[in-house]
TrEMBL record:
InterPro entries: 2EXR. This is 780d9dfd-6215-450b-a557-ded44a84f02c. Residues 20-110 form the 2EXR domain. Pfam families: 2EXR. It comes from the Eukaryota.
Length: 233
């Protein structure tokens, strides 16, 4: 069939009114809002201490990404010069070991590998506090409650007897990140329980033990782990 049979004269797709060609005429503030909406959702980057690393190891060599494949800036950076400028304003290159990924520290989440021992946990936090990009800009960290009570993490089921020394040490490590706003504690599959927060035989809720609100699953894609959020003031 000839092209004219599919698209009669005057109806060529390149000439339809559905194509928006006035983008550059929009005010810069509106264009920036559109680019902002096109940015990807917050992502999770799993970080752990490198094998054989010591406390005196250079920070960027002492840490590694669990996924060692490098990642370029989001595809939005390839649209035009304006979009690239906005993307690179948000996303900065973070090199751990031999891997570089572009990370938005204001939204992306750094997940500390859940099965680290206590010593390795504090070593990883120490390394992170030595990297200016992470130390000065990280707002969201995730920890696995598999760490248990020893690092100083309180949990109503996994353990209530938390050492004040351990809790103080953990808080001292977290205090090195001035912009940190949120900690996300991840309860692993083997530790999932259903709670009844009422007094036995009644419908009266127990004080100070109200369930935490659920988190939208598309915001933090961490497999099937149950998630709990604790805001840090």
């Amino acid at each position: 069939m000839h092209y004219d049979h599919l698209f009669p004269r005057g109806c060529c797709p390149s000439q339809t009114s559905e194509r928006f060609t006035k983008f550059q005429r929009l005010p810069p503030e509106i264009r920036n809002m559109i680019w902002e909406y096109a940015l990807p959702e917050a992502r999770v980057y799993e970080v752990l201490d490198a094998p054989n690393s010591k406390r005196k190891t250079p920070a960027q060599e002492g840490l590694m990404f669990a996924n060692v494949h490098p990642e370029p800036p989001p595809a939005l950076a390839a649209v035009c010069r304006e979009s690239r400028s906005l993307v690179l304003h948000h996303y900065k290159p973070l090199t751990l070991g031999k891997t570089t990924k572009f990370v938005d520290m204001a939204r992306d989440i750094l997940l500390l590998e859940p099965y680290l021992l206590v010593k390795r946990l504090h070593r990883a936090l120490h390394f992170m506090s030595q990297i200016p990009l992470v130390r000065d800009n990280a707002t969201r960290l995730a920890l696995g409650t598999s760490y248990g009570i020893y690092p100083g993490i309180f949990h109503p089921v996994l353990g209530r007897k938390v050492s004040k020394n351990n809790m103080g040490k953990l808080l001292a490590s977290l205090a090195k990140f001035p912009r940190l706003k949120t900690l996300i504690f991840i309860v692993h599959q083997e530790f999932q329980f259903e709670f009844d927060w009422r007094f036995p035989g009644t419908l009266t809720p127990m004080p100070n033990y109200s369930p935490l609100p659920p988190i939208a699953p598309n915001r933090i894609p961490v497999t099937t782990r149950q998630q709990q959020r604790l805001a840090v003031s």
